């Protein structure tokens, strides 16, 4: 259980100092921060339901998804494995209370928007064969001092070297390792050729037949394949994968299994388990990285986390038709013609089509969600049409903080505007598929800033998202987390800022307190303090008269 245990513990004692520092640094470089917190009760629940599986290396290439994550097959399978029944049980409970209501307590983290400066060159655009290509952040050249400039000499034209000392030339041989370490969100190595993965040693080796021209040194990187590189607190709980290029003169393991399709290696560490982070740190990056293979790709996961795999099984299955392989203690060597270590990532909960293969966008991601969960609706209702059905409003009600205290009044107001209101309760969403179905059946979704808004990914294109921004100058944060992402997904985005009078903070602080008079001074106290005041302690009583015009606008947007 070790790793998951560490994760949960770490979330509970997420050090305020580190986060505060990270926030400060973030603001200094103009980063917009995003506050999504981890539900501690969820974490505990997941912990109590975690299977004690440490070795579930599946049989290669059998392609039967239903059995792939349940049982251990590895020769080293000395640990007790979970069986299907256990998995089912812990799966349903692990998804129960976080998906709709979102996080609600202390642990917080940052979302960087500030990575525009570094544009990740797409390795695939490079027509040349290169043995090594490595992009480093500016000013971090020293670790790579000797190698990169040798690229020119290292280029190989196969026709010119017909009798080079090849090691394995059975298939078309294109040998390339391109590591991009320049993106502040993620490190990615893309390797083609004879690539071998050894789970037990967490290593990926590209075997080349190249003569060791330069002192025969092997080229190596250490990659944490979780797309949140800028966040030290998250990355402290992601294991490293060793990636190297070796000329085959020693220490090269023999292949136990050959795979014809490519592999993508990634980790489930960091903030895995928080609904928002599952999408922004893993699922969307995985989509960017894997979609172009159209299912003909195998996921190799550094962290065994079966409840997570089960929770998002439909999404994973829609991206890969192969079984998942876990690193574990797998002593076998899986060989591929192409391996990508790490996941591409562009921005918070979204995709930059100019940087994604095939121009993939958030609209494409939401289309895939519809396929994965068999969601029927691609577009919202057109009110007043022939069928004359009412548009449906999904009201996301949180359980802990940032709750609506006058839910009934809000519902009545919406019904007066001829909307059919669906109120989600945390317990309703026993799994993501259920949530997805409900969300997709709605035309407008509203909720107070929180992880539950991540559910916009299931809305039909052109539907409306209304984010209720709690009092306390939280507009920038809220917009970065859900405003821009929902717009990228082809949705209409509306924002409603809670006024002093609508905030429950008036019951906690006098009106002349800095909390009201000078919110920025509370922000300056640091991330944790700011979150305690404005996010953890605040509930919202919507002034329905003030809110009504916005709801009307949402309704009108459906006519467009
Ligand atoms: C997968 O295995 C299950 C149970 O063994 C079986 O019912 C199902 O038909 C299999 N599916 C495929 C695609 O082989
Ligand atoms: C699943 O959970 C329920 C309720 O917690 C329990 O009664 C049941 O025995 C569990 N099933 C398995 C297979 O563990
Ligand atoms: C590599 O080989 C191809 C095909 O024989 C040839 O057209 C090309 O000019 C060669 N490139 C270099 C750099 O020698
Ligand atoms: C994998 O492929 C290599 C090269 O084609 C071959 O030598 C080796 O025997 C294969 N291994 C297995 C287990 O099929």
From TrEMBL:
Transmembrane region(s): 21-40
Keyword Ion transport assigned: no
Keyword entries, A-Z: Glycoprotein, Glycosyltransferase, Membrane, Transferase, Transmembrane, Transmembrane helix
Any Pfam family the entry gives: Glyco_transf_61
Occurrences of domain Glycosyltransferase 61 catalytic (ranges): 275-466
Assigned GO CC terms: Golgi membrane
InterPro entries documented for this protein: Glyco_transf_61_cat, Glycosyltransferase_61
Topology in the lipid bilayer: Single-pass type II membrane protein
Origin superkingdom: Eukaryota
UniProt keyword Cytoplasm, yes or no: no
Pathway: Glycan metabolism
Primary residence: Golgi
Region annotation (Disordered) ranges: 63-184
A single MF term (Gene Ontology): glycosyltransferase activity
Subcellular location: Golgi apparatus membrane
Biased composition (Basic and acidic residues): 113-144, 151-163
Composition-biased stretches (Polar residues): 78-94, 102-111
Protein name: (wild Malaysian banana) hypothetical protein
Lineage: Eukaryota, Viridiplantae, Streptophyta, Embryophyta, Tracheophyta
């Amino acid at each position: 259980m070790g790793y998951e245990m560490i994760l949960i513990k770490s979330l509970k004692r997420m050090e305020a100092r580190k986060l505060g520092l990270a926030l400060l640094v973030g603001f200094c470089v103009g980063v917009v921060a995003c506050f999504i917190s981890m539900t501690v009760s969820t974490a505990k629940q997941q912990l109590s339901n975690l299977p004690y599986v440490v070795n579930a290396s599946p049989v290669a290439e059998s392609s039967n998804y239903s059995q792939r994550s349940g049982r251990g097959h590895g020769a080293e399978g000395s640990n007790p494995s979970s069986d299907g029944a256990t998995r089912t049980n812990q799966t349903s409970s692990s998804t129960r209370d976080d998906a709709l209501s979102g996080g609600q307590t202390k642990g917080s983290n940052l979302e960087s928007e500030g990575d525009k400066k570094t544009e990740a060159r797409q390795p695939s655009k490079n027509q040349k064969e290169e043995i090594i290509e490595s992009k480093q952040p500016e000013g971090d050249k020293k670790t790579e001092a000797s190698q990169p400039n040798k690229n020119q000499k290292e280029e190989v034209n196969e026709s010119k070297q017909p009798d080079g000392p090849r090691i394995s030339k059975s298939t078309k041989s294109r040998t390339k390792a391109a590591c991009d370490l320049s993106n502040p969100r993620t490190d990615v190595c893309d390797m083609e050729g004879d690539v071998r993965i050894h789970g037990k040693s967490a290593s990926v080796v590209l075997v080349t037949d190249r003569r060791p021209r330069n002192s025969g040194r092997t080229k190596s990187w250490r990659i944490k394949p979780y797309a949140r590189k800028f966040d030290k607190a998250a990355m402290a709980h992601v294991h490293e994968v060793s990636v190297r290029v070796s000329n085959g003169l020693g220490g090269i393991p023999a292949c136990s299994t050959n795979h014809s399709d490519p592999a993508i290696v990634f980790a489930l560490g960091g903030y895995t388990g928080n609904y928002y982070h599952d999408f922004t740190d893993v699922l969307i990056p995985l989509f960017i990285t894997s979609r172009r293979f159209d299912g003909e790709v195998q996921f190799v996961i550094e962290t065994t986390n079966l409840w997570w795999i089960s929770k998002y099984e439909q999404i994973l299955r829609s991206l890969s038709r192969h079984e998942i392989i876990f690193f574990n203690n797998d002593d076998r060597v899986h060989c591929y013609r192409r391996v990508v270590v790490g996941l591409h990532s562009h921005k918070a909960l979204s995709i930059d089509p100019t940087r994604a293969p095939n121009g993939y966008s958030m609209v494409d991601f939401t289309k895939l969600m519809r396929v994965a969960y068999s969601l029927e609706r691609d577009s919202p209702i057109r009110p007043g049409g022939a069928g004359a059905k009412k548009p449906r409003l999904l009201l996301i009600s949180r359980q802990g903080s940032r709750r609506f205290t006058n839910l009934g009044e809000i519902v009545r107001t919406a019904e007066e505007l001829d909307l059919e209101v669906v109120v989600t309760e945390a317990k309703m969403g026993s799994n993501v598929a259920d949530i997805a179905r409900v969300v997709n059946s709605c035309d407008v979704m509203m909720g107070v800033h929180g992880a539950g808004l991540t559910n916009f990914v299931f809305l039909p294109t052109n539907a409306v998202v209304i984010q209720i921004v709690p009092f306390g100058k939280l507009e920038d944060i809220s917009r970065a987390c859900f405003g821009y992402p929902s717009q990228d997904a082809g949705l209409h985005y509306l924002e409603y800022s809670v006024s002093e009078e609508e905030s429950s903070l008036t019951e906690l602080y006098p009106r002349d307190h800095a909390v009201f008079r000078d919110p920025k001074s509370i922000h300056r106290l640091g991330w944790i303090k700011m979150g305690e005041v404005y996010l953890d302690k605040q509930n919202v009583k919507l002034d329905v008269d003030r809110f009504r015009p916005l709801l009307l606008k949402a309704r009108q947007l459906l006519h467009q």
